[in-house]
Specification:
By secondary structure, this protein is an alpha/beta fold. The chain has helices spanning about 30-35, 35-40, 45-55, 60, 65-90, 95-105, 105-140, 145-160, 165-190, 220-230, 235-240, 250-280, 290-295, 300-315, 320-335, 350-370, 375, 380-400, 405-465, 490-500, 515-530, 550-560, 590-600, and strands at about 480-485, 505-510, 540, 565-575, 605-610. It has a five-stranded parallel sheet, with helices on both faces. Helix 5 packs antiparallel against helix 12, helix 10 crosses helix 19 (about 405-465) and helix 22 packs across helix 23.
Length: about 625
């Protein structure tokens, strides 16, 4: 049971108050730009992943590129149809996590959430390193500095997203349009060519085509299918971020999802047709997309437009994670599986803590990998396919519980998709396990366990606070306010005045150490106190050790033990300097006392700020 209570002005789930900053939310077009970069950029490595696997069977194997791509496109259709249904059924976002939580139980929901968290973080690292790798390929002199360039790109994307998801969409819509437009120009021009316009790019590079194999096996086809399915990562991002869209949220998100599927499917099939048409073979050091651009457009300015657009979009495709993960973290925080700070939303509809957490973890991953794409790629896409499979299975159960028209057909569609994505998950994990995919498999259980630990902690806190139950009526208790003092000043006078307003009895306390200098200061304070006569007793607390907080905490415990029905408050007077740097001039005694009292007693702590300006 959730221990969160409704905030003032709260509205039912899925509804919005009239003014929620709609201008800072996404339309279908800006949503496509902000949340589809990962999927769009995948055409740069999806077809290549298929070709590299099929090359193991020689030229005969490459003939299966188009059939495998058509199978992936069919799966894409299933996924888009499924996630359209997820968007309608779960308008609060969350994707596979929301589906699994509702229909498959909390534990399965946490597995889906953990897999998505891992995939989103890896997507940022892979996208940034892939984009920078394209840059260093064009300018080899930058290669030794690739890690710093990766971190600079990450800082840029993080900064844009901290200004709001709409701002990121506006910033990235031009690169997206340029890339998609360039790919379609490449495809259309290539379809009108009977032979490659140029092969300069691949000239002089060694072929990776196997010359000792001529038969195709089912396992190799499955491996090619699973590898090419990397092009489907990002399809789930729109369903995860439905709350980021303008009203009507469901329709706008569904339109963006369909547009993403149509554009991505057309690009994948078109590129595969050209691969077969030009009989391209994978070579070392040159991407398949670069060869296609060369063959279709020639080695001219059009070729370089494709390369630079690909480089930029690969680097910026990390933005998909910045659009989807903060919303997922918000849902986990809402359900008490993450700290509640992730549910807070800043201006411009920004989940700032989620954005910063993603940036920090991604930066650590970039540093640990040295900015090397090959180190990260084997870890990629496993998590998202776990989420795909869980979402499909959950939607099958959803349609079993629904009584609407066409539910059987929809359930069959989701069931078929679950089989396909489940097979892809097993094959991807098995084929890449030894290359580093084991790390994702190993990380899932601890992440799920961490979610559970946070939930149990919140449940204990909720139990102690009595959340969800009507508390006893408030009543007045006798109160004693203790004010630590060390000298007489306007600060002392204001502190005693505030204390007299708060409690029935006020006591000033001062700590005395055995040093002669400290005793002299104490006697001077006592004489001044007697001369001032504020009507408040000054209590001397002797302490052999040179400590300040513990004697005051011990005195608070004595008062509490002697008067158990009395509310004890410790009011700590402090100065608020005029300039920020002047805080370095303070002795921090107030913080020391507050820490000791908070750690060792249950007294209320008040910190009185006296502004010096």
């Amino acid at each position: 049971m959730s221990v969160l209570t409704a905030e003032p002005g709260a509205v039912p789930a899925g509804e919005e108050p009239p003014d929620t900053g709609e201008r800072h939310r996404l339309t279908a077009v800006t949503g496509l730009a902000a949340l589809s970069l990962d999927a769009m950029a995948s055409v740069a490595y999806g077809p290549e992943a298929i070709v590299l696997v099929l090359a193991a069977a020689g030229a005969h194997g490459l003939g299966y590129t188009l059939p495998v791509t058509l199978a992936i496109a069919a799966l894409l259709v299933v996924l888009v149809a499924s996630y359209r249904q997820v968007i309608a059924a779960f308008p609060d976002g969350g994707g596979s996590y929301a589906v699994a939580w509702t229909h498959l139980g909390a534990r399965t929901g946490l597995v889906a959430a953990a897999s998505l968290v891992l995939d989103y973080v890896l997507n940022v690292a892979v996208a940034v390193t892939a984009g920078v790798a394209a840059l260093t390929s064009a300018f080899p002199a930058l290669y030794p500095h690739r890690l710093w360039i990766c971190l600079a790109v990450l800082v840029l994307i993080t900064g844009v997203n901290l200004r709001g998801i709409v701002e990121s969409a506006k910033a990235f819509i031009v690169p997206t349009v340029v890339f998609v437009g360039a790919i379609f120009v490449l495809i259309v021009v290539g379809l009108f060519r009977s032979s490659p316009a140029s092969t300069v790019t691949a000239a002089g590079h060694a072929s990776v085509l196997a010359d000792n194999a001529s038969t195709m096996g089912a396992l190799l086809l499955l491996k090619a299918f699973a590898s090419g399915c990397a092009a489907l990562t990002g399809v789930e991002a729109i369903a995860n971020a439905v709350p980021s869209f303008q009203a009507p949220r469901v329709k706008r998100a569904q339109h963006a999802e369909v547009a993403l599927g149509a554009v991505l499917g057309a690009m994948l099939i078109g590129l595969s047709v050209l691969i077969s048409r030009f009989h391209l073979q994978p070579v070392e050091g040159v991407t398949v997309l670069a060869q296609l651009a060369d063959a279709s457009l020639g080695h001219n300015w059009g070729f370089y437009v494709i390369q630079f657009a690909t480089m930029i979009l690969l680097a910026l495709s990390a933005n998909t994670s910045f659009g989807g993960l903060p919303v997922l973290l918000k849902l986990l925080a809402r359900d008490n599986y993450l700290p509640h700070v992730f549910a807070l939303k800043a201006d411009r509809q920004v989940h700032r803590h989620g954005v910063l957490a993603l940036a920090l973890v991604s930066a650590a991953l970039l540093v640990s990998s040295g900015g090397d794409t090959n180190t990260l790629v084997p870890l990629f896409a496993i998590g998202v396919f776990v989420g795909f499979t869980i979402a499909q299975v959950g939607m099958v159960k959803h349609w079993r519980l629904e009584r609407g028209p066409g539910r059987r057909g929809k359930a069959l569609l989701n069931g078929f998709g679950a089989v396909l994505t489940g097979v892809a998950t097993v094959v991807v994990t098995g084929s890449k396990f030894a290359e580093g995919a084991w790390l994702v498999v190993v990380m899932l259980p601890p992440l799920v366990a961490a979610f559970g630990a946070v939930h149990r902690a919140y449940r204990r806190i909720g139990g102690r606070l009595g959340l969800g139950r009507i508390p006893e009526s408030p009543h007045r208790e006798r109160s004693v306010v203790i004010v630590p003092v060390s000298s007489l000043s306007r600060l002392t006078s204001q502190a005693l005045s505030a204390a007299a307003s708060l409690g029935d009895e006020v006591r000033a306390v001062t700590v005395c150490h055995p040093d002669p200098e400290d005793r002299a200061q104490l006697h001077a304070l006592e004489r001044a106190w007697a001369e001032w006569d504020p009507g408040v007793p000054l209590v001397r607390l002797s302490c052999e050790r040179r400590t300040l907080g513990r004697p005051i905490a011990a005195y608070v415990r004595e008062v509490t033990a002697a008067e158990p029905a009395t509310q004890v408050t410790v009011l700590i007077p402090e100065t608020e300097p005029e300039r920020l740097w002047q805080r370095l001039l303070q002795n921090q005694r107030g913080a020391v006392v507050a820490h000791a009292v908070r750690r060792e007693t249950d007294a209320v702590i008040c910190r009185l700020r006296f502004r010096l300006s």
